[in-house]
Amino acid sequence: MRTSSEIGYNSKVEGDLVVTRLDAALNWFRKNSVWPMPMGLACCAIELMAAGASRYDISRFGAEVMRFSPRQSDVMIVSGTVTYKMARVVKRVYDQMTEPKWVIAMGACASTGGMYRSYSVLQGVDRILPVNVYVAGCPPRPEALLDALIKLQEQVIAKEPVIATLKVA
Amino acid sequence: MATALELANRLRERFASLVSGPVEFRGELTLRVADAERMAEVCAFAKTELGFDYLVDITSVDNYGDDPRFTLIYHLYGYGHHCYARLKTDVSEEKGELPTVSGVWQTANWHEREIYDMMGLRFRGHPDLRRILMWEGYPHNPLRKDFPLSGKPTDVPELAFTQAAPLVGGPFVTVAGGKDTIEREPRGRLPENEPVETKGAPELRQVTEDRHDHSSGRGAVDQNQ
Amino acid sequence: MTTAPGAARSIKTNSMAEVRDIEITDSAAKAAESMQASARANPSADELADFPGERMILNMGPSHPSTHGVLRIVLELDGEMITKAMPEVGYLHRGDEKIAENMTYSQFVPYTDRLDYLAPLANNVAYALAVEKLLGIDKQLPPRCQFIRVICAELARISSHLLGVGCYAMDLGALTVFLHTFTEREKIHNLCESLSGARFTTSYTRIGGLSRDLPPGWIEQCRKFCEEVLTNIDETETFLNRNRIFVDRTQGVGVISRADAIDFGLTGPNLRGSGIDHDLRKAQPYLVYDQLEFDVPAGTAGDSYDRYLVRMEEMRQSVRLVRQCLDKLPGGPVNIADGKIALPPKDRVLTRMEELIHHFLNVTQGVNAPPGEIYFGHENPKGELGFYIFSKGGGTPYRLKIRSPSFVNLSILPRLLPGHMVSDVVAILGSFDFVMGECDR
């Protein structure tokens, strides 16, 4: 048991120890391991798979764990055209995700309906979900998706205090 | 090895009054079957006697403004003789149904379901006639010519809306059967201003309102759901 | 193509490679056993009446890692055994056919990319050939254009089969194969990018030709790729062909008989895996396939393992075709000379009146097609992609129907799945190699 009136970092005494706020630490953990829930619907899903493959390694950003379970994932990457028939499924899956959760709308079809302006296509997934990052392209290059992930990470780190989202009984 | 012309002629000889043709265009032969009710019989003969064991496709065309309104086109192929054949038949709008050929080729099952979904034609004797591409309970038939490309508002269960696709000026649409290429040129037309069809009585498309509120910015319309 | 029961199974291709015998015993016995299991699991009506126990309905939903896109299958289970399977498609129905009625022929080319989005170049070639058949100019394409289109179609075939095999292996648990095949696909993406500007969804062909000629250095890059991909195919086969787990999971699983395959309209590797060696490139030759030498592999037992082997061998044959085309590639223009169909060269458009008018009419009103109807079927990696165009004249089709191979291939699932166990569903779906963009259009 050591009591010390010294506050701050003294490397001789404390060694490799960093003092910070709990919120910042938790957000830093979250930022570097956003586990995506790939809602891979159409052609953008192939670029999503390419981003996860070995050339454009999404694992560098901690996001290679593409769990298809919504309960275990943080960000839903909606990649591909969302039709009305699929929209209720996307909404249901999104509702099952646990807080905190984010959404990346990848590609033109997910952002705005893309070039399919027809009777069965939802004109943008932001009509049913709150979207954090939109990625343009048809399909966007994997590097664009990685850029979106970095932008999402900046949003995560700037999030409000995380204590509020921990529902303590 | 029979040629396509020989097989087509044999088919015509067998059903003398029913089948007319064959008409040739770009190396393909088309036969017309006068009565859609006997289509299954003609197809069964084609499969068993003429060796057309592979049904490639069944297509439906909406001749809006003509009577009979719908044309069904069957593409046949045989693995033994490598020949194609095309059978066409007409169905009027009042009748709206014809017998199924899924007893002859099992692949017709899904093709006919798609025609039922997209055009609204019923197939008598089909084992499982329900919608395949749109959801159960969708009230319209999208491929008909009087259905606009941007769609009509309907209800999706549990999601509360489908809207007509919004765009200032509408999506690029053509006028079905317009009298010359200038009229058929696809351009952005507002639905309430443009006629659906220039032959026969033109009718204006129904006005579809855009109920979506653009002021909510980023985010969902139904965030409370 | 026949083997004695119980003996080694082989895929015979009388080609450059020697006959490869893969000695796995009891293959025929396994196939017979699974047929019997399927017969047992479909009891007759009076047997059903006094059948004890409950059936459970399991939804293999549209968002699923192994359904290769948005396919939903509602399974009725008796324990682990499937008794009924009802696939539901349409979750990616985007209305392509109705859009086609409202676009000129050239404007529709990007939509064809997104049909079979694993092999977009093949779809582009198929659509361009269909419209050219309607116009009657398909025999008048310049030879350079035809050879380049064959190269594109075969590269697309290699790309699609690489992804098909990679994802199939990943679904069955072999994750390394996925990463290996994707590395090769990245090389194809590099080739596509230097060819057309986009990694995939290239929109490369135009009516009457191609959008642009091959860039300098592309041919050497392509040859180098052919060498490397053969090594990679051999490596993948080393991983999977004699892998105990892979073989046990795929042999005897999902057996499709010859009669069923024809009756349900299967095409492509699924048909050839059941023993019918029908290939549209040989039966109805288009482009310059009749001048090129290649073989068509066909399986024997019609199970998932055979379909996988057919795909691997097709990749080798595609490499052979690409090499022949690169050797024989002639010079000359890539677009047909008729200014009313293909856009005239820009310097003439800017200086001469007639070409200016042609350019203007082509872009605004579209190619002036004659009234009539055609059907053109193309040998896509997934099967026979067919375009039926019904034209009443002018630049837009009155009706364009896309005969999609994946749509028809999936229709056999209610017949095929009962009698298998739940974990076999993944093996069967992967062996079918369908893509929902094409199925739902």
Describe this structure in words.
The complex is a heterotrimer of chains A (169), B (225) and C (441). Chain A is an alpha/beta fold. Chain A is built from six helices and four strands; from the N terminus they run ααβαβαβαβα. In chain A, β1, α3 and β2 form a beta-alpha-beta unit. Helix content of chain B is 16%, strand content 21%. In chain B, a hairpin with a 6-residue loop joins β4 and β5. Chain C has 441 residues and is of the alpha+beta class. In chain C, β6 and β7 form a beta hairpin. Chain C is globular and about 80 Å long.
In short:
By secondary structure, chain B is an alpha/beta fold.
Regions of chain A with pLDDT < 50 over 5+ consecutive residues?
1-7
Strand order of the largest sheet of chain A: 1-2-3-4
Rough shape of chain A?
A: elongated
CA radius of gyration of chain A is: 19 Å
Low-confidence stretches of chain B: 196-225
Distance between the termini of chain A: 32 Å
> Strand tally of chain B, please?
9
Keywords:
heterotrimer, A: 169 residues, alpha/beta, four-stranded parallel β-sheet, 6 helices, 4 strands, C: 441 residues, alpha+beta, three-stranded antiparallel β-sheet, 19 helices, disordered N terminus
Helix and strand topology:
The complex is a heterotrimer of chains A (169), B (225) and C (441).
Chain A lengths: L10 H4 L7 H10 L4 E5 L2 H10 L22 E5 L4 H13 L5 E5 L1 H5 L20 E3 L6 H16 L12
Parallel strand pairs in A: 1-2, 2-3, 3-4
Helix pairs in contact in A: 2-6, 3-6
Chain B lengths: L3 H11 L4 E7 L2 E6 L5 H10 L5 E9 L7 E8 L6 E8 L5 E3 L8 H11 L3 E3 L47 E2 L7 H4 L2 E2 L37
Parallel strand pairs in B: 2-5, 6-7
Antiparallel strand pairs in B: 1-2, 3-4, 4-5, 8-9
Chain C lengths: L8 E3 L8 E3 L4 H15 L3 H5 L6 E5 L11 E7 L2 E8 L7 H5 L8 H5 L6 H16 L7 H29 L3 H22 L8 E2 L2 E2 L7 H23 L3 H7 L7 H6 L5 H5 L6 H4 L20 H25 L17 H6 L1 H12 L7 E9 L2 E9 L7 E5 L1 H6 L2 H4 L5 H11 L3 H5 L1
Antiparallel strand pairs in C: 1-2, 3-4, 4-5, 6-7, 8-9, 9-10
Helix pairs in contact in C: 5-6, 6-7, 6-13, 6-18, 7-8, 8-13, 13-18
